[in-house]
Amino acid sequence: MSSHEPTRILAIRHGETAWNVDTRIQGHLNIPLNDTGHWQGQRLGQALAGEAISAIYASDLSRAHETALYVSRATGVPVVPELGLRERGFGEFEGKTFAEIEVALPAQSERWRKRDPSFTPAGGESLLQVQERVLATVNRLAKQHSGELIVMVGHGGVMDVLYRAATRLDLQAARTWLLGNTAINRLLWSPEGLSLVGWSDTQHLSDSALDETST
Q1: Is there a catalytic annotation at residue 14?
Q2: Of 148, 18, 31, nearest in space to 90 by CA
Q3: What is the Cβ-side half-sphere exposure of residue 2, based on CA atoms within 13 angstroms?
Q4: Active-site residue among 16, 87, 94, 125?
Q5: What is the pLDDT of residues 130-181, one digit of tens each?
Q6: All domains of the chain in start order, with CATH
Q7: Which end of the chain has fewer CB within 10 Å, C or N?
Q8: Annotated catalytic, 155?
Q9: Catalytic residue among 14, 28, 65, 145
């Protein structure tokens, strides 16, 4: 393929976990998919079975890796673990719910809520650090697949960085877009950066999805 051809990216957040339901911060902790998450993964794999995917990269955290395996089984493409696609490290916030953080660490919670780009939870990462890590990872991987279609399975924080980069939105801009579990987000990468093709496609999760694809 020509090195000038853009790379097509399917960026996907992992399936649901029990901690998603509880609004508990997962960060770098290894939390598995719940039953709904496995169902979402199966539907995702079925939806992408016909795509000409050249590579599948996934965060090494279990919830993302398990999700990626459903796509792998449907396409025959192996999953390559990629630490650069990990969720933001939340340090001392990890394992706590949003409400618990507000009560236990009110000053830090406020900086977090205001999306202070330089705020770093003790033992964790700032938004600026996550942005740098994720975009460096995407640039490195996309360069290797010019003219091809690749899958990147990550986390809500990773999807947020990609959307902002593709739409040229500041890190502190209020979020008005969805970061749904196993939603399919389509991006184009070129040396000039990312551009948005489609966001938050969840048709595969509707009750009629399988009926529509079989008729």
Answers
A1: yes
A2: 31
A3: 5
A4: 87
A5: 999 999 999 999 999 999 999 999 999 999 999 999 999 999 999 999 999 9
A6: 7-214 (3.40.50.1240)
A7: C
A8: no
A9: 14
